Amino acid sequence: METEPLALDAKVIQALSGVSTATLTTVLLKKGLRNVWLRGTRPLTPDQPRLVGRAFTLRFVPAREDLATPASWGSPISTRAAIEAMPAGCIAVVGALGVTDAGIFGDILCARMKTRGVAGLVTDGVVRDLAGVLGTGLPVWCQGTAAPPSVAGLTFVGWQEPIACGGVAVFPNDVIVVDADGAVLIPAALLDDVIAAALEQERLESWIMSQVEAGMPLPGLYPPNEANTARYRAWAKANDTRG
Amino acid sequence: METEPLALDAKVIQALSGVSTATLTTVLLKKGLRNVWLRGTRPLTPDQPRLVGRAFTLRFVPAREDLATPASWGSPISTRAAIEAMPAGCIAVVGALGVTDAGIFGDILCARMKTRGVAGLVTDGVVRDLAGVLGTGLPVWCQGTAAPPSVAGLTFVGWQEPIACGGVAVFPNDVIVVDADGAVLIPAALLDDVIAAALEQERLESWIMSQVEAGMPLPGLYPPNEANTARYRAWAKANDTRG
Amino acid sequence: METEPLALDAKVIQALSGVSTATLTTVLLKKGLRNVWLRGTRPLTPDQPRLVGRAFTLRFVPAREDLATPASWGSPISTRAAIEAMPAGCIAVVGALGVTDAGIFGDILCARMKTRGVAGLVTDGVVRDLAGVLGTGLPVWCQGTAAPPSVAGLTFVGWQEPIACGGVAVFPNDVIVVDADGAVLIPAALLDDVIAAALEQERLESWIMSQVEAGMPLPGLYPPNEANTARYRAWAKANDTRG
Amino acid sequence: METEPLALDAKVIQALSGVSTATLTTVLLKKGLRNVWLRGTRPLTPDQPRLVGRAFTLRFVPAREDLATPASWGSPISTRAAIEAMPAGCIAVVGALGVTDAGIFGDILCARMKTRGVAGLVTDGVVRDLAGVLGTGLPVWCQGTAAPPSVAGLTFVGWQEPIACGGVAVFPNDVIVVDADGAVLIPAALLDDVIAAALEQERLESWIMSQVEAGMPLPGLYPPNEANTARYRAWAKANDTRG
Amino acid sequence: METEPLALDAKVIQALSGVSTATLTTVLLKKGLRNVWLRGTRPLTPDQPRLVGRAFTLRFVPAREDLATPASWGSPISTRAAIEAMPAGCIAVVGALGVTDAGIFGDILCARMKTRGVAGLVTDGVVRDLAGVLGTGLPVWCQGTAAPPSVAGLTFVGWQEPIACGGVAVFPNDVIVVDADGAVLIPAALLDDVIAAALEQERLESWIMSQVEAGMPLPGLYPPNEANTARYRAWAKANDTRG
Amino acid sequence: METEPLALDAKVIQALSGVSTATLTTVLLKKGLRNVWLRGTRPLTPDQPRLVGRAFTLRFVPAREDLATPASWGSPISTRAAIEAMPAGCIAVVGALGVTDAGIFGDILCARMKTRGVAGLVTDGVVRDLAGVLGTGLPVWCQGTAAPPSVAGLTFVGWQEPIACGGVAVFPNDVIVVDADGAVLIPAALLDDVIAAALEQERLESWIMSQVEAGMPLPGLYPPNEANTARYRAWAKANDTRG
Predict the structure, then answer these.
(1) How far apart are CA E56 and CA E168, in angstroms?
(2) pLDDT confidence of F243, banded at 50, 70, 90?
(3) SS3 call for A179
(4) Are β-strands F140-142 and F120-123 bridged in parallel, bridged antiparallel, or unpaired?
(5) Parallel, antiparallel, or unpaired for β F183-186 and E42-43?
(6) Is the minimum CB–CB distance between D196 and chain B shorter than 8 Å?
(7) What is the rounded CA–CA span in Å between residue E48 and residue E51?
(8) Which of C113, C191, D129, D227 could potentially form a cystine with C22 if both were Cys, beta carbons 3.0 to 4.6 Å apart?
């Protein structure tokens, strides 16, 4: 039933670690993808590093008193079992229906994820026990915190299935990048194209920024007209450090 | 992957066809179930009959431009394939994330469902081509209508899985009852208990209504105190038609 | 604790029965009152007559499992007791926090209100058992219908207190007018002023409408400039039927 | 400041009058346009005919007590002046910020629009004085009704400017089609392409519907595989009535 | 009219000061209480201590221009009078209808509450004059800040009545616990049971956390199976410091 | 088409720099203006200084795939051209329809605004590339951050037009004051009156605060009764430093 997790090439992680989610969403929009931004996934603390990893998905449906009980935590289909299936380096992406009054995970589950080498947790829901979760050191992107347990609002139904998270369709093994702005999804099939375009976009924008800092006005510069494109290309050629 | 559909005993259908969703939600609440009402599932026309059937579930996630395309309608995992798997007498329950600006089905899909003997369609989304859908004669409970096709907002991912619909967890083969108020879910495991309690509740409330029509005030009557309970029981004994 | 209900002069009822809620909100806005329209109070059926009456208020807070139970329906502070305190001719205004997934009243309570001569029911919530409620003949303005009982979402706490209904502050004995557009509140203290201005506004607008039907353009007519004001006054003088 | 209104070719009106908004949104999505459906624009009565016309836009901003007053109705920039600038045959599209507690127009303004030959009114807001507006015979698509005047929530600022309506960017003279489902926008530049594709899509879907009614299952039919495409083409060739 | 405030036993305060709101909501859910979490009550600053106290309730309805005026601040039923009725040690719980564009209190009222020994302020609304409120040192849990005075959106109507706050029914003298996650309510009648269960839950979870830190996987540990329960009990017995 | 920007008197800036937005909204409400608070305009960082300036408005409508493209950034009607028209000292007020999933500006545009001497940026939308924007030093008030570019959700249509921002009507050259609470608008025509009243209100409230700190209860003090008004006037006379 669940899709097998895949590893992500270290070169991909390294390349994307230097690219902002702002640049990635621009590049993806140019390829026709306008709905790849996971709404409501803010960093739990301001200093969390940019992360890159494959999505390991978890899926919730609403709570039903006969299903969402503390007893259900011991069932074979449980968040506990899902966590034990997470490979090191993945980013857990949890579809929580945008519920903000029941925390999907607290300190114990986050601690176990950290131990297993999970890179981070991204959800359109919230976590519980803020102090405890921060104590585990697991980087978390979410809508905030709420004390009630998940079963107060949600029933867990499976992992590594396609999910909705923050208004975006996330499939198992899609690539996720998160930074201070939040989380963006790169469809697995587009990965190579996106990386190439993103590195170029980052370089162009950093050159434009240097021109703005030097006092140039925006029209003709951003986006660059023919003359400025030529200037940029000359600069890029002279400063090519990509070897 | 998908749960096998089950038939529903004709006696169950007959018994529940005489019970309002208002009575059923009262009975379920007394058993501790407070979240079994599918929000946003209104009858498309005011004269649709009460329906009883097992849930055949369909699941959508949000649209992604690389996935939700007209071309996807031909894929093996498509709403088309799901419809061909629906047994006669089932109620299709479609989890559409509450999306109201993309219609999940139009006239063609509804016509095919009608042909296959599907009892009705219940969704927290909307349908498209109102005139066409009404023309098929398929009873529909939904949030309304919108012209855009499903792929403008949604990506179909599977059937007979647990879904969220109207804020309720619906599992394949749960029992659904819909009437002029909307749709209620009865967990399969509670079915017998609920039927017995519901028939008694209907009888009690109809007796109370007769007393109100006769001019009795509410306190002590609804719910009945000891004296009125005795009067009701005497009436019930004298009028027992259940044989 | 509760404010004593007051009767409403039959002349007031007669005068306001000829004035639309559109005219009343215009008149009240000219007096500086911009928030007197009870949002979400739509007629349950399209043919309900315009009603005028004093508000008899009921107040709910959210459900709490230890408080909002079927057993609570028998407590001294219950909707049942509140209904028995309603005088004939009042309009029951129920503050239901805008909750749309639990019906405040069903057929039995509406039947009793009808028997007691209550003029109508206005709420920012919903009713349950649509067929049953329509059967009682009680005119209802609300957000729609839902099957679950009030205790699935609400706890009743008192009557004839100040309440919030549809984003408006309603005090016991404020005057309510409802028609096909919905419900407007007239603060008791402004009643006489409002009636006089409203009758004049209705007369002016009906004259303007006759001019539009005769082909006059809007600028200078609505609102009328000096010349048109003079024409209107002449017409009004010639057609004064108010004795 | 305002864009000059343009007339719409009678042949365009005739062609589009036979095409549903469901078909148009499908055709536009295939051309990459996913956001052309004006949310919240429902027909005020169920029997309003399909309309086709160029958009004549009106723009509101929120109410401010020093600006949005009954006195402002007489200013040169007023809804009254805008109505006098509307050409016969246009569809007035009013950006009302989705405000549902202040009616943009009542009976007098709608009557004047009807007199001037305006084809219909489309808004993401509401109208006031339901009975009066219905009496004018002007077809209206909106979110419903509310009694308060526009100045209770809105300030009018101009006409024939780009506006937001129902989450869609509407530019003066874009083409609007409205039917029982609601309103769709066709960018003026895409008109010819859309008409051709829409007529073909309608024909294809009506053939598919005939096959469904004859009992064919959906996979391979909708969308048609190679064999069914061939069958359709043969049928279309044999039944070509387009001369 | 108002319920008399009650003191809270110092032992209760001490016991609950060591229990997180996450633990309390878990314990309450096990007792069947799923709706005791006050949504939208976030700490105004991250370093506010956990507080425990009885609720002293205040109730607002929406603003009405004839009622909600600066002059009303001097009326006998005013927030000022309510503050003077607050006992030391209470937690003021203010039902503000979730209004976020009018601040219920600013620096002056917060300063007076601090002087009177009020433990903290909890509301589903916002406060105004952030710098001023922080200057008073009163711990505040709320939805944020807004400059406009309460009368821009709210009318104060009474204190020590049942209220709605953050979607929860709060009765005078219910016990409130607030920490970094937000605010939870303990019904007065359940207090002793909850304390006992909460202390045990805290101890169990801290043992589980120690096991996770030691590398144990989750299944069978959280919740503990029979073997782990035995291990926990042995540890608990050996480490019982409760006397 | 665009309104010409106006400068703001340095004395106005100086006077208002000492007045909180809380005081200004109180003063404006007393003059009948209840809707001048721009909802959802929070400081991007907690330490941003209070700013005073005239509004330079920018207006967006929703995205349409044929209009909102990266290519559009080079059109004559672009955010780039708008920024080049901004005078030093203005506050850019951007109506972004409350869109939170597409950032209106990133580091490059903010850097250019900073270079041009723009005092600050206020929007009901969000910015993108948080780290980059903070690096420019431009003070920003907004709803938060999102990575996607503006064209993912918005189409830019013009500047120095009347706009909606945070539910408020903002006209070019209205005066804006922003501080830790958010942004308030002062209609240009009311400026002198508001300043005078605001300075007096600040002085009165600081005296009241001193009395509260000295232990005085609130009733009779805030607002002051006759005796306290006399005491205040005596203090004010003795401490008048404005002479």
Answers:
(1) 15
(2) very low
(3) strand
(4) parallel
(5) unpaired
(6) no
(7) 9
(8) D129
- Look at residue D163 in the predicted model and tell me its pLDDT: 98
Q: Which of D181, D218, D223 sits opposite B130 (nearest CB)?
A: D181
Separation CA E101–CA E63 (nearest Å) = 12
- Out of C32, C61, C169, the one facing E164 most closely (by C-beta) is C61
Identify all chain F residues contacting E84, using CB atoms and an 8 Å cutoff.
217-219
**Interface B:D, Cβ pairs < 8 A:** 92
DSSP string computed for C157-192? EEESS-EEETTEEE-TT-EEEEETTEEEEE-GGGHH
- Which residue, D92, D111, D99, D41, is CA-closest to D68? D99
Tell me how far apart the alpha carbons of residues E53 and C59 are, in angstroms, rounded to a whole number: 26
pLDDT at B243: 46
F189 near D CB under 8 A: yes
| ipTM attached to this prediction | 0.95
Q: Give the orientation angle of helix A191-213 with respect to helix F107-115, to 10 degrees.
A: 10
pLDDT digits (tens, 9 = 90+) for B126-184: 999 999 999 999 999 999 999 999 999 999 999 999 999 999 999 999 999 999 999 99
Backbone phi, psi, residue F172, to 5°: -50, 135
Calculate the alpha carbon distances from A179 to A105, F44, F129, F135 in Å: 21, 16, 9, 16
CB proximity F188 to A under 8 Å: no
Residue E74: predicted pLDDT:
72
Q: Name which of E198, E222, E195 is nearest E210 in CA terms.
A: E222
Give the mean pLDDT of chain B. Answer: 95
Q: Which residues, in sequence order, are CB contacts of F67 under 8 Å at separation 6+?
A: D169, F155
A223-226 contact pairs (CB < 8 A, 24+): A223/F70, A223/F71, A223/F73, A223/F74, A225/F74
Neighbour-count burial of A11, counting CB atoms closer than 10 A to its CB (0-12 exposed, 13-18 middle, 19+ buried) = exposed
Average pLDDT estimate for A211-216: 96
- DSSP state letter for F219: T
Q: Which residues of F106-122 are buried (b: 16+ CB within 10 A; e: fewer)?
A: bbbbbbbbbbbebbbbb
CA dist., res. B72 & res. B67, Å (int): 7
Q: Which of residues 18-37 of A touch B (CB under 8 A)?
A: 32-36
Q: Give pLDDT, residue D243.
A: 46
Return the number of other C-beta atoms located less than 10 Å from residue C147's C-beta.
Answer: 32
Residue-wise pLDDT for C49-102, tens only, equals 999 999 999 999 999 988 877 777 778 789 999 999 999 999 999 999 999 999
Q: Identify the segments of chain D with pLDDT beneath 70.
A: 1, 241-243
Rounded to 5°, angle at Cα B162 from B157 and B165: 85
Q: Is the pLDDT of residue B68 over 90?
A: no
Cβ within 8 Å, pair B162-A33: no
Give the per-residue pLDDT at E66: 87
Query: Distance, in angstroms, between B80 CA and closest chain D CA?
Result: 6
Cα–Cα dist E57/E50, whole Å: 19
Is a pLDDT exceeding 70 seen at residue E1? no
A189 touches chain B (CB under 8 A): yes
Q: Rounded to 5, what percent of chain C is helix, strand, coil?
A: 35, 25, 40
Q: Residue E156 has which token pair?
A: 């104060």
Q: Which domains, ranges and CATH numbers included, belong to chain E?
A: 10-188 (3.50.30.40), 193-238 (no CATH)
E42, E212, E219: residue with CB nearest A111: E212
Tokens coding C127: 């009713």
Six token digits for residue D25: 């949104």
Counting as contact any 3 or more CB pairs under 8 A, the partners of E are A, C, F
Residue B240: pLDDT above 80?
no
Model pLDDT, residue A243: 46
Two structure tokens written together for B125: 């989304």
